Amino acid sequence: MKLHFRVICKNLWVILIIVIFTGVTPTESYAFRSQFYEIEKPKIGYDFSYEFDNEKRTGTTREDDNVTETYTESLDIKTGGWLLYDRLVTYNLRLSPEWEQLRMHSDNELENESKNAVLAYFAQMTLLPYKPYTFDLYAGRSRSTFTTTFAEKSKAENDSYGATVNLKYNILPTMFKYRHDESTQTGFFSSENESNKYNLVVNHDKFLGESELSVSYSDVSTSFRNITNETESLSAIFRNDYSFNTDVKLASRQNYSSSKAGGFTTSRFSLSEALDWKHKKDLKTHYSLRYAKTDFETFSDESTELGFDLSTRLFEKLAASYFISGASSKSAGLEVRNYGTGLGLGYSKEIPQGKLNISTSHSYNMSASDVESELDLIRDESVILTTGPGTELLRKNIVIDSIEVTDASGTITYNKDVDYSVRKIGSRTLISRVSGSVIGDGDTVLVDYTNLTNATYDFSTFSESYTIDLTLWSALRLSYGYSHSVQRFLAGTEPDNLQDDSSHSARAELSWKWSRTTVDYQYMDRSDLPSESLKISETFTFTPHRTVFFSLSGSYGKSRFIETDEINRIYKVTSRLQWFPRRSINYSVDGFFTEQDGEIVKTRETGISSQLRLSIGIFDVSAEYRFGNSLDRESGEERTNNLILFKIGAPMS
């Protein structure tokens, strides 16, 4: 009872202060003023909240019943002004003291009670704000709270300070920034962080277009679970945008960055050029060049890309686009080259009571690799030889002529196609006993052979897609899409499987008065894992009165992996009711239900929340209740949560 009485008394004092400041202070924008200084009229805000959180967990291994009560108060005071003659110094001050009291109960017994307070603030001062050179100084402290679904709250307190130097020269305006941060996080996730960041920005827009150079450096120290990580990073970015005229524009970018963490250093450099050329109203081209190189401790990556794009309108309702590209990348001794080209067409036409859109695209890509394959000698691989389909050898990409088969002792050598036979399927090799062989059916033999490592192959990929979209009466929309992508082997070591994927997708959507119905179907015929999915959803929206809004939606989804016949179903229902009896009052109720039923995941989640918000004079009041239940039917674990939250506050004014 003492706790509630102290809280009520403190709240009354704070409310009295707010009334005094907002009602007694003169109506001018300043409270004190002279020839040499001005102090603005203070603005005050206040917040008080009470939170009751009850969480129950039941299951095969645990049963918990925890209650947490949290009282939080914060006061926000803000002012500003200027000092010295001709406003040589301007300043802003903000104080935000916060108090919190926490009480934790477990199984109706008080386990923990804590009180803490933090003086959050922000102070900022600007020297010579109206001169060609300006200096900004600031410092601040703040607190934030992180909440996760299955863990306790974590709080973080952050202290920061910094400075900015702004040189406002017409030809070369320059800005330098420095910032220091220290933060401590407690709770479920506990850590300490300290960082220093420097940033230099230089601009120029007089002679060679609009240019900007940005250089930044930072060193960050993070401690988590008694492990400290130090990271240093440096980056420099230069950009230039130059217009030859209104129809031709060139964009240039150069980036450099390096980082050092855990004793490892990484650096990266990239260069890009992009030229946009508008030849005519309906004819545009785009040219691009990009180079990038990344250096690691023991190897480097290097890539070069070239591209050309053209877009035009062949007829009034038919648009076309064409592209051609080439790229080369090198990494750890492997070089890969890619070349591609493609064409796209789009047709759009207004029809009676609707609109029709048709599009198609075709592309061809070729990939080639340069790598030196190595020969690896395998000796005495033990194989059980039988008559029939054969036994697969362990390694891939075996040189057939290198295979030698001996008995288990290694003294007798057998003959190919007389005692055994070899069959190659893609990169796999199968060996089997020949009928009438001196090798007994089921005997163990030893096999020696040579296989290729780092085996690569060249291939081409052809892709095509078609879509059609029809809208009728602004209420019905029908669409269908088909895409197909297939690989072709060109050279090298042929793999076991090449890509041959296709997909079909269809959608129907009907919006009529207060309802909206959608049906989505997709079939993926993939070479690795074909699947299909179906989703049906329905939404009802009612506004029976201008102050009342209600919505109800539900959906059913089903997905199936065709090869394994694994099926996953999901059901969802959500609803919302909002009532605005007055502009100052808002009441809402939300509910949801979700159930997932699959081979592995079997869960059910239900919940409801209710919220009331109203304004009384200068105060905003809100009350909220939330209920949530989640059940894992596979493990039997269940979690139930009840949350009550009450807030009252006066916005800063």
Describe this structure in words.
With 653 residues, the protein is mainly β. The chain is built from one helix and 36 strands. The protein has one helix spanning 2-24, and strands spanning 30-33, 37-40, 43-58, 63-83, 89-106, 109-127, 133-148, 151-167, 174-187, 191-204, 210-224, 227-245, 248-261, 264-280, 283-295, 300-313, 318-331, 334-351, 354-370, 374-385, 391-392, 404-407, 420-425, 428-433, 443-453, 457-472, 476-492, 500-512, 515-525, 531-545, 548-561, 566-582, 585-597, 602-616, 619-632, 637-650. It is extended. The two termini are 33 Å apart.
Oligomer category: single chain
The count of β-strands is 36
Terminal residue distance: 33 Å
User: What is the overall pLDDT average?
Assistant: 86
Helix amount: under 10%
Largest sheet: 28 strands, antiparallel, barrel
The total count of helices amounts to 1
- From the spread of the alpha carbons, the general shape counts as extended
Strand content: over 45%
Low-confidence stretches: 1-10, 12-27
Rg to the nearest angstrom? Answer: 36 Å
Please identify the structural class as seen in this structure: mainly beta
What keywords describe this structure?
28-stranded antiparallel barrel, extended, 3-stranded antiparallel beta sheet, disordered N terminus
Chart the SSEs and their pairings.
Elements: H1 2-24, E1 30-33, E2 37-40, E3 43-58, E4 63-83, E5 89-106, E6 109-127, E7 133-148, E8 151-167, E9 174-187, E10 191-204, E11 210-224, E12 227-245, E13 248-261, E14 264-280, E15 283-295, E16 300-313, E17 318-331, E18 334-351, E19 354-370, E20 374-385, E21 391-392, E22 404-407, E23 420-425, E24 428-433, E25 443-453, E26 457-472, E27 476-492, E28 500-512, E29 515-525, E30 531-545, E31 548-561, E32 566-582, E33 585-597, E34 602-616, E35 619-632, E36 637-650
Antiparallel strand pairs: 1-2, 2-4, 3-4, 3-36, 4-5, 5-6, 6-7, 7-8, 8-9, 9-10, 10-11, 11-12, 12-13, 13-14, 14-15, 15-16, 16-17, 17-18, 18-19, 19-26, 20-25, 21-24, 22-25, 23-24, 26-27, 27-28, 28-29, 29-30, 30-31, 31-32, 32-33, 33-34, 34-35, 35-36
